[in-house]
Design a protein that fits this description.
Elements: H1 3-6, E1 11-20, E2 26-31, E3 43-45, H2 52-64, E4 69-74, E5 79-82, E6 98-108, E7 124-130, H3 135-138, H4 144-158
Parallel strand pairs: 1-6
Antiparallel strand pairs: 1-3, 2-7, 4-6, 5-6
Length: about 160
């Protein structure tokens, strides 16, 4: 599929969650469908007329089983990315060229054993806590700008 055709496709509305533990490390998961060594933050689509914070909590629970969180901050701006050409037409039934996401920074206040990625429609095969500034080193390249924005936001917030 050529990039010209993709420009006509809309962006999918999504949410993302930056989940911090008590040491201000951030939760990342390794996707089941991605064979390479890339990690990502929990994120997902928004249902029709769904409140964004509600969607973020729902996605977090669906992907990690986590419900014990406190909202720290909603990142003001929308963050967007476009899919690379090799993924266009393959993801989201080919209906979108990328995502427009609202991100939420949350504090995990539960016990570690609450985290369970073996959920009904599991997306992650493994997970770990990493330093905030390591985020940009483990993410797939087409999402790099989003993660750079998030790291910048976190460093302002936590310093």
């Amino acid at each position: 599929m050529s990039s010209n055709k993709s420009k006509n496709l809309p962006l999918r509305l999504g949410v993302g969650i930056v989940l911090l533990n008590a040491e201000n490390k951030v939760f990342v998961g390794k996707r089941i469908d991605n064979p390479v060594n890339f990690w990502q933050l929990p994120q997902g689509g928004v249902n029709k007329n769904e409140d964004l914070l509600y969607a973020a909590n729902r996605e977090l629970k669906e992907e990690t089983s986590v419900v014990s969180v406190k909202l720290i901050k909603e990142i003001d701006s929308w963050l967007t990315y476009d899919l690379p050409d090799n993924l266009l037409g393959k993801i989201w039934k080919g209906k979108y060229r990328g995502q427009k996401q609202k991100w939420f920074i949350m504090r995990f206040v539960g016990k570690e054993d609450e985290i369970n990625i073996k959920t009904k429609n599991a997306e992650f095969k493994s997970w770990k806590w990493i330093n905030i500034n390591q985020l940009i080193n483990v993410v797939v390249s087409f999402k790099l700008n989003i993660y750079k924005s998030i790291v910048k936001e976190l460093n302002i917030l936590l310093n």
